[in-house]
């Protein structure tokens, strides 16, 4: 079980690495070149748009082919992308880098969800999802360390990263198949625990999670894009201290993931998402108030946002894994990806326009409203089904998979 958790975490790390590498190499570039502080946001948005557009194709691939060759394909492709990074010299080159990187970013989530759905016991799935959700944060950490330690040799760092991914492709190609053993008695039907009518499993929640992911993922994207800038420009932090603000959110999110995943044992994930979204919305008010109340409100809000808005995000994947049949888990995950990457691409741009109208501090209301809209989506889902809430994992369905293991 631990090795599978590590494997899916590595897949997520590699899948997100080009995104973080692109931003990390900006300080090494000429200001007048095609990659600079003014254009990196455009390329990142292109990457997310490509991920959203390619999600359904990648989801179909995941449902069609075994996970081992797809892991190898992901690692080799990302390795090739990283090899090209030092030689990119025009805007068209960086657009192509972003499109390819985004396409394979869209592969990582459905692929890891399928591995978890087919090869991890029911009670352990939330725990493994929690592990894999740390992968993107580790990707950011590794990219930052690799290029920071390289000094001026960022090109060599890119080549070294590519070589590491090629090695991982070989390791996964040889060894992953030995880890992925089918679970005896895994049902072929969705197990989300909500019945449309007696005896009929319901996976309609996946479609409701598309707009929910659009709103809540967009809120997360605004935090990543604007918290350091807000700290520097509005609260007058030094650049280094402003960077610490982003690190505080990331650190709090790790603890938040553990808390929310652990809560799955006692409460339905849908209900937890609604509670987390409400708390995240309230946390945004602290950012609005920070310039007037004091710096302590800012730090408190960052911790709260990390614990709620970012910490609760793995619950969406927990629900998708349980709501989808093994034959369609890739496509179900891809549908969520359409909403998620759409929110990533759209909301920071939208908030920038709101900022021009109401000012930087007040524009954080976009984050609060987005989380409230997420709550409204889930409330509409519950109303439309007009049935009892989802029971906690490990209660109703534990007996159907009791005695099985991975």
Offer a concise description of the structure:
This protein has a two-stranded antiparallel ribbon with strand order 1-2. Helix content is 74%, strand content 1%.
Share of helical residues? over 70%
Main β-sheet description: 2 strands, antiparallel
Structural class comes to mainly alpha
The Rg value, from CA coordinates, equals 21 Å
Report strand %: under 5%
The main sheet orders its strands as 1-2
Number of strands: 2
Sequence stretches where pLDDT stays below 50 over 5 or more residues = 187-201, 388-406
Q: Report the total helices.
A: 14
Structure description:
With 406 residues, the chain is mostly helical. The chain is 74% helix and 1% strand. It is built from 14 helices and two strands. The protein has a two-stranded antiparallel ribbon. A hairpin with a 2-residue loop joins strand 1 (195-197) and strand 2. Helix 2 runs parallel beside helix 4 (91-119), helix 3 (67-84) packs antiparallel against helix 7 (154-179) and helix 9 (239-263) crosses helix 11 (295-310).
Characteristics:
mainly alpha; disordered C terminus; 406 residues; two-stranded antiparallel ribbon; single chain; 1% strand; 14 helices
């Amino acid at each position: 079980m631990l090795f599978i958790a590590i494997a899916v975490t590595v897949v997520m790390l590699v899948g997100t690495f080009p995104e973080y590498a692109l931003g990390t190499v900006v300080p090494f570039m000429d200001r007048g070149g095609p990659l600079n502080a003014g254009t990196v946001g455009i390329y990142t948005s292109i990457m997310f748009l490509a991920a959203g557009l390619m999600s359904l194709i990648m989801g179909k691939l995941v449902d069609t082919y075994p996970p081992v060759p797809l892991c190898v394909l992901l690692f080799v492709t990302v390795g090739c992308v990283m090899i090209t990074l030092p030689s990119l010299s025009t805007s068209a080159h960086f657009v192509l880098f972003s499109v390819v990187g985004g396409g394979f970013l869209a592969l990582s989530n459905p692929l890891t969800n399928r591995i978890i759905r087919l090869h991890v016991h029911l009670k352990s799935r939330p725990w493994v999802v929690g592990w894999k959700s740390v992968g993107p944060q580790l990707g950011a950490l590794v990219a930052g360390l690799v290029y920071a330690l390289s000094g001026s040799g960022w090109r060599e760092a890119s080549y070294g990263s590519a070589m590491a991914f090629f090695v991982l492709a070989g390791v996964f190609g040889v060894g992953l198949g030995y880890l992925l053993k089918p679970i005896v008695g895994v049902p072929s039907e969705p197990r989300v625990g909500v019945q449309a009518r007696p005896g009929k499993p319901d996976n309609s929640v996946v479609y409701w999670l598309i707009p929910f992911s659009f709103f809540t993922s967009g809120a997360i994207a605004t935090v990543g894009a604007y918290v350091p800038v807000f700290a520097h420009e509005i609260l007058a932090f030094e650049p280094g201290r402003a960077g610490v603000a982003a690190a505080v959110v990331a650190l709090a999110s790790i603890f938040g993931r553990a808390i929310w995943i652990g809560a799955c044992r006692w409460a339905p994930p849908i209900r937890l998402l609604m509670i987390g979204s409400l708390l995240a919305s309230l946390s945004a008010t602290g950012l609005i108030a920070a310039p007037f109340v004091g710096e302590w409100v800012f730090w408190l809000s960052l911790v709260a946002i990390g614990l709620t808005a970012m910490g609760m995000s793995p619950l969406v994947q927990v629900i998708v894994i349980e709501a989808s049949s093994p034959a369609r888990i890739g496509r179900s995950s891809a549908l969520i990806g359409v909403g998620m990457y759409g929110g990533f691409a759209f909301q920071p741009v939208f908030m920038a326009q709101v900022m021009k109208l109401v000012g930087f501090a007040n524009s954080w209301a976009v984050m609060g409203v987005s989380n409230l809209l997420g709550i409204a989506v889930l409330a509409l889902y519950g109303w439309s089904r007009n049935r009892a809430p989802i029971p906690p994992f490990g209660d109703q369905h534990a007996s159907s998979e009791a005695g099985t293991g991975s």
